[in-house]
Amino acid sequence: MKTYQALIKRELLEHRGAFLYAPVILLAALFLLTITGLVFEDPDISISSNVGLAGKQLYQIALAGVFALWSAYLLIALFFYFADSFSADRRNNSLLFWKSMPQSDLKVLTSKALAGITIFPALLLAFAMITGLLVYLVSFLVVAKMPYISMVGPIDMLSSWIQMGVAGLVFFVLNILWYAPLLGWVAGLSTLFQRWSIPLAFLIPGAVVLVERLTNLGAVNPSQPFADLIAYRLDSSMLDENVVVKMLTSDGFSAFGLIAEMTGALNWFDMAVGLAFASVVVFLASEYRRRRIDA
Fold this sequence. Notes:
The chain is an all-alpha fold. It has one domain. The protein is built from 13 helices and no strands. Helix 1 (about 1-15) crosses helix 5 and helix 8 (about 180-195) packs across helix 9 (about 195-215). The protein starts with a helix and ends with a helix.
């Protein structure tokens, strides 16, 4: 266990730019821009001043948007992380150092995968929670500029913040597990082709889809199983937007209701197949590294 902790800590040190420094800079910049815009500009929103908007519901919607945006950032960052981490030590010759240690290639690559699905999502979840607190601070200026919006109380704010944090945690985890085969795909390509893994991750599936379409020219109902599989895997519609909006705008919002909606809409069998694929890729990548260095 201590070995894995050391290896995962190494991943954090080597990739802290994308998962620590960049989020801090991004969050600070957005916060300052928002504050500046509210202080020095008058928002032009075409809502009648006679319409009272509930602060609690607006805060819940804002929190949902915050977690959705940070989740998108996490997936993009993880894509580039897996496209780089499985081959980064080959570029600076540190792979020879790790081969001299009593650690197998499987353990090293597993630690990289574990870092990608544990510590990095945890960091961005923390940033999402911090953003939620900053949104509450900004809401004081929003209410001052737009008095027809009611201010959410501290107790309601804390309740919504905690419940959205719990739901956001589950959302992060399910998103990562659902997209695990795509992350495993680019990681496997990184082991073979290093920096070419990013374009190849798109070019190879695109070529297969193109071949499928060319072989089905003129067909009334063309069979495109690979294209359908890619489209299905890229579709992250775990949530019905209408149901989510209804939950967020209700007084009795519950994180457990949102979690039940997410877990109920998920195809668990397909998720298990995707995780199995990603696990096989990590194993094959470790075997390739072992045999390539030993050769």
